[in-house]
Amino acid sequence: MAPERTLREAHPTERAVGIEYYVSDADGIGGRLRESPEDFRVRELEAFDAEPLDAEPGSYPELVLRATLRDWDTNDFARRLSDALGISRERVSWAGTKDKRAVTTQLFTVRGIGADELPEIRGAEIEALGRSGRSLSFGDLAGNAFEIRVADAVEEAPDRVADAVRDLRAFAGDGEAPPDGEGDVLIEATVGVPNYFGQQRFGSRRPVTHLVGLAIARKDPREAVRLYAGNPAETEPDDTRAARDRVDAAFGVDEGSGSDDADRAAADGTGDGDWAACLEAIPGKLRFERSMVHRLADRGVDPDAPPDDEDWWHALEAVPSNLQRLFVNAAQSYCFNRVVSERLRRGLPFDRPVAGDVVCFADGDAPEELYAPDTDRLQRVDADRVDVVSRHCERGRAFVTAPLVGTETELGDGEPGEIERAVLDDAGIEPADFALPGEFDSKGTRRAVLLRTDLDVTFEGGDPRFAFALPSGSYATVLLREFTKRGPLDL
């Protein structure tokens, strides 16, 4: 067993979603992200080919667009675009969802329209690229290139950035010293951090999606509905908190009998079941919560109905299918974060395997600037092959993985497998639990534990600007947190 390490502890908000530590012990530079949208630029690294614009629409019904959006949430822009075109929102597709407070460049496909029909939309530059026979999906995004300025960093930021890069370069297994800065370039180095799922995955102000997902995996849809529609957070507005308190009263809440993953109250079925009163209390802005409670009211569900009763599943399925999947994905992500944190605490390497690890190989079709894993190509590492596979990892040809647990997930052996099983046991779930109804079902997969990138840092007026590229599914904030050392809500 590897020796346990003393590490710098993460912010409490992060620890609630399984992010327990920092890799770098360097002091933070502080600062803020997204002081203006131009401070956070994201450009998709595309993996999607289009036919010419004059291709036959009958064979190629999808118009392919590249849009540069300023201060637009991806979902909101898709809704605005479909409204302007007078079509269903379901005819607009994209490969990756981006944050609002940013300048983002990404692809969209729109079914059944021509380039001459495109509207003008405030804050959006839209270019028609061509046509396609299918709509965009998640697999059509190789990754994202970022340029991010941290505003109002501390005066000592240059030295602190350099100290952090030294730690992150060692963590990535890069023994090369960074070159001396030339001109405005402070640092060019290959760095690595744990490939955590960022706070956005779980909700920054109310991290609850993983708790809902864990309740679903435990076959407790009653508690899943209660956690989503009730369960107030201190960071929410007063009217929202009051509405969630009313929902908790309708369910009945047993204080202090929460699950092992959090010290929370849980539904106990002793509430008044006054769903009509809940609907009066829930503001219209909580439309998904209202949809769930509407279904309870329509069926007159007794709060004391069995936790896995079909009526609770019916209420849970009131939300869109993508949110249903997100609940389960967030539970998987939370367990992954906890596995990664425990691996870090025990001092197991991230840049190379130990006996019992499962590795994946590199994606040979990924853009040159990405260190991209292909988790469809997995291999177990026994003691006899550790040295050989380590050399593959050193050359960027292989990556150590941890599970995103599902029905077909095979856990590791040795100490890595011991960690994986202990985390699942503590969460009260096992792979077979993800055989779930409808959109909640998940086969699972594995994910690289190390996030490696080539980082450039420049300074503008004393504030650092970070430039790097990450494979799809990885989070820029997971890298930046190592430099800022601030909580998610403080950025």
From TrEMBL:
Active-site residues, as the UniProt record annotates them: D99
Enzyme class: isomerase
Coiled coil (residue ranges): none
Protein function: Could be responsible for synthesis of pseudouridine from uracil-13 in transfer RNAs.
EC numbers: 5.4.99.27
The entry's keywords: Isomerase, tRNA processing
Gene3D superfamilies: 1.10.1510.30, 3.30.70.3160, TruD, catalytic domain
TRUD domain boundaries: 192-451
Name of the encoding gene: truD
Designated name of the protein: Probable tRNA pseudouridine synthase D
InterPro entries cross-referenced by the UniProt entry: PsdUridine_synth_cat_dom_sf, PsdUridine_synth_TruD, PsdUridine_synth_TruD_CS, PsdUridine_synth_TruD_insert, TruD_catalytic
Family note: Belongs to the pseudouridine synthase TruD family.
